Amino acid sequence: MAADSEFHVLAVDDSIIDRKLIERLLKTSSFQVTTVDSGSKALEFLGLHEDDGIINTNTPSVSPNNHQEVEVNLVITDYCMPGMTGYDLLKKIKESSSLKNIPVVIMSSENVPSRISRCLEEGAEEFLLKPVRLSDLNKLRPHMLKTKIKDHQEPEKQDKEEKQQQPQSNNNNRKAMEEGISTEKIRPRLNGITAMV
Amino acid sequence: MDIVNQLQRQFIDHSTSLHREGIVDDQFTELQKLQDENSPDFVVEVVSLFFEDSEKLLNNMARALEQAQGVDFKQVDASVHQLKGSSSSIGAMRVKNACIAFRSFCEAQNREGCLRCLQKVTHEYSLLKNKLQSLFRLEQQILAAGGSIPVAK
């Protein structure tokens, strides 16, 4: 069985330079990484059809126990992309009953307060300013642990992550949404219903 | 080995001047830190991608500004925005700053101003490219002579 600490991150950025950089940063932080260059490719990878929101379970790589083709523990996306922006992608993920529990992090080269609050209000866990540094990625692990704990509720997975319930680091004032989940025990998540306040 | 020491000293001098002259900033150092035995050519690879991408973008800007029937400033700005982002990502500070100035002329739809900025960005880019290529050449020479690359800061 794969190590409990192996998290898979889907990174989305239209810039090839930034994709290479984020991939290296994530791998250095011991995450498994898949990079795609657009929001639509991200949704495809997550197994979501844009039009009807139905998960495609007919592809050969789907495991019978998972709705998605591959388990993704976090999506990190650039904000400014042609076609589907990072914000659009965030919305689609949060509107999908099967994907809404996947933490989403937004990256942007521009520090625009209204942009930041819009993303956080839509459910982004973090908003990182580019260029992203290794230290920024340390903020990601707690969000991914939440999803592992969620998986523990499902019968086919036995994780030992319970004892690793880390408190959210709330000293970041960009994380207005996270105030409801601090040092308390993580609430069990019912399937398809998010426990976030 | 005398030759290795000589080359290493040249490398350090070159690297220091890149930073001192503001051609690269801390972000470039961050890139170098990400290079290790798992990814030994990381910096060269990213920078090569940057060179390819930048030249394409600079061409786009030049073509867009040449349009006799009217310049599409949005298009120019889009390319400048991309170059600003990628230069920031690799720590190419002077290129990035030249892009920031460029964007205000795009916003003002000032063709003359844009052309001057394009000249400036192109100049900074060429300078950066030359200097980084020299740096990489020194690295190769050090490795070929059996030495190791001095670690940044």
TrEMBL record, chain B:
Residues carrying Phosphohistidine: 81
Localization terms from the record: Cytoplasm, Cytosol; Nucleus
SUPFAM superfamilies hit by this protein: Histidine-containing phosphotransfer domain, HPT domain (SSF47226)
Annotated GO CC locations: cytosol; nucleus
Record flagged with keyword Oxidoreductase: no
CDD domains: HPT
All copies of domain HPt, residue ranges: 39-142
MF GO annotations: histidine phosphotransfer kinase activity; protein histidine kinase binding
GO biological process terms, semicolon-separated: cytokinin-activated signaling pathway; phosphorelay signal transduction system
Principal subcellular localisation of the protein: cytoplasm
Keywords, comma-separated and alphabetical: Acetylation, Cytokinin signaling pathway, Cytoplasm, Nucleus, Phosphoprotein, Two-component regulatory system
UniProt KW Iron-sulfur keyword: no
Job description of the protein: Functions as a two-component phosphorelay mediators between cytokinin sensor histidine kinases and response regulators (B-type ARRs). Plays an important role in propagating cytokinin signal transduction.
Domain notes: Histidine-containing phosphotransfer domain (HPt) contains an active histidine that mediates the phosphotransfer.
Official protein name in the record: Histidine-containing phosphotransfer protein
Organism: Hibiscus syriacus
